[in-house]
Amino acid sequence: MSGVDDLERGLVSAVAAAADEATLEQLRVSALGKKGSISELLKTLGNMSPEERKEKGPQFNTLRDRVSEAIAERKTALQEQALNARLASERVDVTLPVRPEPLGTIHPVSQVLDEITAIFADIGFSVAEGPDVEFDDYNFTKLNIPPDHPARQMHDTFYVSPQKDGSRHVLRTHTSPVQVRTMLSQQPPVRIISPGRAYRVDSDATHSPMFHQIEGLVIDEMTNLGHLKWVLEEFCKAFFEVEKVELRARPSFFPFTEPSVEWDLRCDRSVPGKITFGHGNDWLELAGSGMVHPKVLSMCGIDPEKYQGYAFGGGIDRLAMLKYGIPDIRPFFESDIRWLRHFGFAPLDIPTLDGGLSR
Hints:
This protein is an alpha+beta fold and 359 residues long. It folds into two domains: 2-89; 108-343, BirA Bifunctional Protein, domain 2, CATH 3.30.930. 40% of the residues lie in helices and 20% in strands. Helix 2 packs antiparallel against helix 4, helix 5 (108-123) crosses helix 8 (225-240) and helix 5 packs across helix 10. The chain is elongated, with a radius of gyration of 37 Å.
């Protein structure tokens, strides 16, 4: 018995004195490994008589268990010590001054989108979103666009591969499908804007195959073109940061609105290469709009006898070009860091109505 006790005391002391996990592993192997001291003791049980085995077996097993427990406890302690040492060495003094490194630049489209969202949120609009790959039904049919309409032709629209049932999805040609999704899922009153990407087969200095669009939708029991004009006026005053604006209405045609109206904004082009708003003798096309067609309301599950609404839409890229004097839309998508540094915005300059949109 004294030999087993001495072996246990020696092993436990050695385990307690182990300075690192490598030393501890060597001790484990020397004691509990295939040829370790405790393993060799356990092998002797096979040559003992039943009476000796009955006496020595519990002693050897207890020795093995106690040494295993001591090794496990020491391993946990060593791991905690190593973690504490690492945390101490990697500690960061947050009171040190920030290194003067650039945080990046905000793209004009992102800046203008934030400005637009802030303006319409102040008027009471919420933001709605939808997928870029859209059902043909949502992009065309439920917007009262007939099958033979030119907008459905492949020279205007990007179609994706046919589905198993023969139907075809499209890259949405406008963000109007978000309005459809909203009307199908929400009962009036509705007051939303739907900013996002849209796609059309078009490319030149003022058009891109992928562009950004903002549309608005209001549906209630009492809405009219006067409400629509007021919303657009308030938006233009806030966005272009002028005290007053003048809008001119022109009759137009869109399949999803009746009547349909296009709006021009009074501006001044007397200085070459510069446009200012709120005064002048020129007009600039601003947005398309109109009262939501009763057929659209019906196809989206809204009673046109009880509710009516108005919708409007325009290009975010074009608004950015007008406000910040950007002459060509194509560099918007070319990832030229020099262009971005010239036309971009500081990342922490978040636009607010009280603090100033563009600052």
